[in-house]
Write a structure and sequence with these properties.
Blueprint: H1 8-25, E1 52-69, E2 75-88, E3 91-99, E4 106-110, E5 124-128, E6 139-143
Antiparallel strand pairs: 1-2, 1-6, 2-3, 4-5
């Protein structure tokens, strides 16, 4: 677990309220227009600092191309640029971070034991936007409380990358968004 800043849970709740308002009202919401009248907000796990972890970075010397399958059967190419090593409840885990372009945020798709049970069956995502270029041994915070479902969880009109098997965690991450 990483240090939890003052007001962290309140900021998380405010961010969730903002997202719910966007999904309810914005014309680019992934919620189909015919379902918005009944939309009362997304379902989230309660904020839990246990799932806010410090991860050690390993940067890929030569970012490896990875073809990720998508929810509609196509593939999309990413580059595996970093690996994050971290612990939850004393057990060690690893997640890969991906980019399509050099200036993109680091994309961290993952599955865990809640996938298809309590969370979207296609997995969930996190994104990191480091302030500076990451180097081997750097430490970053992975906050699974920010894990979100891709737009294809709400409508089949979207095509979303599915987490590659390398990012399937053999643990339960009861943090972030629940299944819609």
């Amino acid at each position: 677990m990483s240090d939890v800043p003052d007001g962290w849970a309140d900021e998380l709740r405010a961010s969730r309220e903002e997202k719910d308002a966007f999904f309810d009202e914005h014309r680019q919401s992934p919620i189909p227009p015919e379902e918005r009248d009944d939309f009362e907000g997304l379902d989230y796990f309660d904020p839990d600092p246990t799932y806010r972890v410090t991860a050690t970075v390993t940067v890929a010397d030569a970012p490896e191309p990875v073809e990720m399958e998508t929810s509609d059967g196509r593939t999309v190419r990413y580059r595996r640029v970093v690996t994050f090593d971290f612990e939850i409840d004393g057990a060690a885990y690893e997640l890969a971070g991906y980019r399509q372009d050099a200036d993109d945020a680091i994309f961290v798709p993952f599955r865990d034991k809640t996938t298809g049970q309590q969370t979207y069956s296609g997995g969930r995502y996190m994104e990191l936007e480091p302030d500076e270029t990451l180097a081997d041994g750097d430490e970053v915070v992975l906050d699974f409380n920010l894990a979100y479902s891709p737009f294809c969880a709400y409508s089949e009109t979207f095509s979303c990358p599915l987490p590659p098997e390398a990012n399937w965690l053999d643990t339960t991450i009861e943090a972030g968004e629940r299944e819609y």
